[in-house]
Amino acid sequence: MNCDEVRRKLSExxxxxxxxxxxxxxxxxxxxVVDALTQxxxxxxxxxxxxxxxxxxxxxxxxxxxxxxxVSAAIGLLVLIAIAVMITGSLTIHNRLLFGWLVILLGVExxxxxxxxxxxxxx
Amino acid sequence: MKLSWExxxxxxxxxxxxxxxxxxVEEHQGLVFRTLARLVGRTYRLDDLAQEVFLRLWRGLxxxxxxxxxxxxxYRIIVNVAKDEWKRRKRAEIELPLDDPGGGWENRLHSADPxxxxxxxxxxxxxxxxxxxxxxxxxxxxxxxxxxxxxxxxQEVADALGVPINTVRxxxxxxxxxxxxxxxxxxxxxxxxxx
Lengths: 123, 195
Fold this sequence. Notes:
The structure holds 2 protein chains of 2 kinds. Chain A is built from 6 helices and no strands. By secondary structure, chain A is mainly alpha-helical. The longest helix of chain A is centred in the C-terminal third of the chain and has 25 residues, at 96-120. Chain A starts with a helix and ends with a helix. The model of chain A has no long low-confidence stretch (mean pLDDT 75). Chain B is mainly α. Helix content of chain B is 74%, strand content 0%. The N and C termini of chain B lie far apart (85 Å). The model of chain B is unreliable at 98-119 (pLDDT under 50).
């Protein structure tokens, strides 16, 4: 039994011989998989779905551009950084090397925070 | 007086935006529902998940960069919502039944119907592919659905998933291989039943 014959047979009904062929044939198994994947399901949205979404929308998205999630964490991080800078700054102000490292560390932390916030506001 | 006029204008603008957005929802709801249906494996809560997709789209509008990316942007949100749903299910340890509420082919093969083998048609094999799809990693499942079902290009799938094109190719290759393996194993079981 060749591949075309098996696929035609399977489109009507299956028998042990066709199944045996598909189990042993990479190409037929792949054809069934791709065929199944390309078929689009057709779930139906409930009636008035768009109207319901519209009624539940918050105010204009422009007023919502600042993400709620992550803001409190960002503020918390900034406060922590400020405290750390005050404490370590007072300890290292007379040591130029340590103070330099502190400034670099602070810069890296702020850059990471900005990157993270930028990512959080994407979606 | 001036403030109330400004407020009125703002409300009108917001209302116009909402009406325009409702049209966007109508235009894209089919895409959202069918993609979600495939990615989350079954249809319960589909309305809630689709609603979450559109609310995220609404919130993300200020950061949206142009009409050309509408679908990719929407697919990215759908993928994220589906991922969150899978995480929720994992936390809740929800068992997923097969898509076919009437049962899989095993049940039918054991039926008293003498022609039981005939109902094991290609349609049933395809529903087995859907069941096997749920067992893949979310990255593989997302890539397969976006590429095959939604007919996105490699680049569009990469953009939607936020990964390089070569990673998409790997997901597709590995995902299809695992689906083939799963379907062949299930066919082996069914063939034994048919003997």
